[in-house]
């Protein structure tokens, strides 16, 4: 490929399109154009950094052909490129002083497109304002040396002559001066001058000016009356008129800034600037990409080499043999038919760049279902080398090698398979993770506080909020136990069960009283001995009653003491646990305090005193022991039964006294026995009735009075108590929400710079925004229904109906609003309560813990396209947003390699959004794009087109062609390969000189 058509495509070089030669018609400072003068002139051009020159003369092109002849004679191997530039003084004036505007016509230097004969025709038809002695209009070809000073042409006449000469072909561009003898000298107070200036602007393709003029001529609001103006390029020229002016070629002279053009050094390359005026021209010391190449050479791929290993016999195909591909530092578009090896180049670069997406490679894959080039006998026979722009040691690998994860990623690679896995992943977790890391890249270094990624910063900034949430949830779980208990009591079935128990107890009492024996009269006085026995029985029975009552009291006392001991032990354990937690937390705080030069001992003091607790534990334990230990081994009449206190002793005494009474009864007469039995039975029934009825002040559970109190409590106090507990729960849940909001605020605080960047690419057609929002878990429905038995009657019965019911309820939840989320949780419970709860819900307490813990939504970055969030987007729309993030927001500077991202995207999205984003991305990093869609390659103004083929019929021989878009051969290849999308390409054919 010739020097004019470089393999690496369009690259930045110095151009100077406005300099005069020795012998120029006007204002020549060279003196007599001797051979010595020409020699010095040509040497200055050859030694300069300028690669392309516009050789200028007034109303003439003769000196251009003379220079070309002399240059090639002096430098047969010279590579400088020259274009003829004819300068005209226009008839139109727009300044207060009446100075004429100057315009230039730069012609194609390809004589097959712009032959000298055509130029002669042009000058023979182009009329000046001057007339001859006969009154005939003087044409440019008729001008004499004296005429050059005064001759002018009209811009209209010039344009007509160009059209008449060249027809639809346009081997020229019209470049009008902006400063000095140019449009910027317009008399702004004169409507006529402003109007003429606008017309001159419209007739011009470009302008000679300075960096200060660029913004004005790129704007779309230059014209009077509000008409839209087309962005046009500005070139800075040296306007050399003398040997001393040649110093301007250095680019260091004030007011003569160097012009850099990114294009092939051809007229097609020059014309390319008319259609990409912002991206193809740079006026200044050096274009930023060249500066970055010098300073960050390790982040630019300069060249890829792939070759067969020595000894390979090509039995499995030629594949890559002596492949050497240079890469453009900006955008390279790899194109080709399906199966042509496009993804192969991307995968090889990903392998050499240690990409972490190697599991998603489509060519260098070892997936058992699709091994492709990793089959035995293939990849191990080829080796690849990447040379970096830095010129350091190249990276080499055999294609069967693996990615070395101990090394950093030298490229960012988005294989097609990875792209699809992200965009189709149901919960888009991986996609959100990518978004978070891109956001983190925009966080100012000072605000990162020493963290290296988003998760670390989040943990640092939200630790307290998460700790608070954990504490609130602990209290919530405890409260839910109470609420579940109260709700069970509030259930009508529960009250009905109590009423049935009460009825049963009343019936038990009735039956008991009905069992009382018939009254037995006290027998007449009997013998003194019988009276004595009866008296003993009465006394002993009273003692027995006392023992029974004391026994009940002791048992109850023992139960209370054991409960107290349990509480005291639990309290002690809690205090000890608190001390352990404080010590652990204090150790963590000590690290932070040490960092800040603080003494944690002066900040945190903690002291516990368990002496009173231990003392009470000892007292209670001793009393329990005294009530549990039997002190009497054998009972007799000598023992004072009123002094015994332990439960075993009281039970033993009761047995002893009951036995004694039985013995005394056996000595009574029959009438006396009947009477004593009657008294004993009544006494036992009275005691039993008291047990059934319960104590009036503090009845035991299950007694009539206890049941009556519980029923009365349900009717009177329970509703208020339940309401109070639910309100308490709502307050705790609100606290959980507020703590989660603090986490969300962390997300909000980081997104400002990202919003600014998104605003650049956002439009009415592509309204992309980023929110820090609460986002529900994708498993919310599954998790909720997991608590429900969908086989029984209820609003969520049946998998389809239950799912539809839940989705309809969840659809309108505003997750950033507490009232909305809380109402959602309560409404779910209300729907459940429309049928019996117990058979529907597997564990109501666990359901409460789930619904009111708010664990099913979290703060996330929510990308929105229009009104749709990530979960609502199609795979193609997700892919588009992902690409926008990588291309427009990712601040990494490593080469970005993307393999066919457009498969799920419509053409309009590609052209309107991606093309714009790629243009922005290539300003900051090298982009290598595998694509079969012309809207990406052309719309993004790819600097290099790499067209690859894999000739299967020729034993799988890989080959390629590469060059700039403006290269006619590249044009031809693009149209042929991208035939399926030809209309999108052809509508820009004029911009790219496509036939």
Observed structural traits:
single chain; 995 residues; alpha/beta; TIM Barrel; Rossmann fold; 6-stranded mixed beta sheet; elongated; disordered C terminus
Can you give a write-up of this model?
- Helix 13 (492-514) runs antiparallel to helix 18.
- This protein has 3 domains: 12-286, TIM Barrel (Alpha-Beta Barrel), CATH 3.20.20; 301-411 and 895-986, P-loop containing nucleotide triphosphate hydrolases (Rossmann fold); 493-718, no CATH class.
- The relative contact order is 0.09.
- It is elongated.
- The protein is of the alpha/beta class.
- The strands form 5 sheets. The chain has a 9-stranded mixed sheet with strand order 9-8-7-4-3-2-1-10-11, sandwiched between helices.
Layout of helices and strands:
Elements: E1 12-20, H1 35-47, E2 50-58, H2 62-74, E3 81-93, E4 100-107, H3 116-125, E5 127-131, E6 137-139, H4 155-166, E7 172-177, H5 191-203, E8 206-208, H6 211-218, E9 234-235, E10 259-262, H7 267-275, E11 281-283, H8 288-295, E12 301-308, E13 323-326, E14 331-335, H9 342-352, E15 382-388, E16 395-398, E17 412-414, H10 416-424, H11 429-441, H12 454-490, H13 492-514, H14 528-595, H15 600-603, H16 611-628, H17 647-665, H18 670-693, H19 704-716, H20 718-750, H21 752-761, E18 768-776, H22 780-785, H23 799-810, H24 818-832, H25 837-840, H26 844-853, E19 857-865, H27 875-889, E20 896-899, H28 907-921, E21 927-930, H29 934-937, E22 944-951, E23 957-963, H30 968-977, H31 982-986
Parallel strand pairs: 1-2, 2-3, 7-8, 8-9, 14-21, 14-22, 17-20, 20-21
Antiparallel strand pairs: 1-10, 3-4, 4-7, 5-6, 10-11, 12-13, 12-15, 15-16, 18-19, 22-23
Helix pairs in contact: 3-4, 10-27, 11-27, 12-20, 12-26, 13-18, 13-19, 14-16, 14-17, 27-28
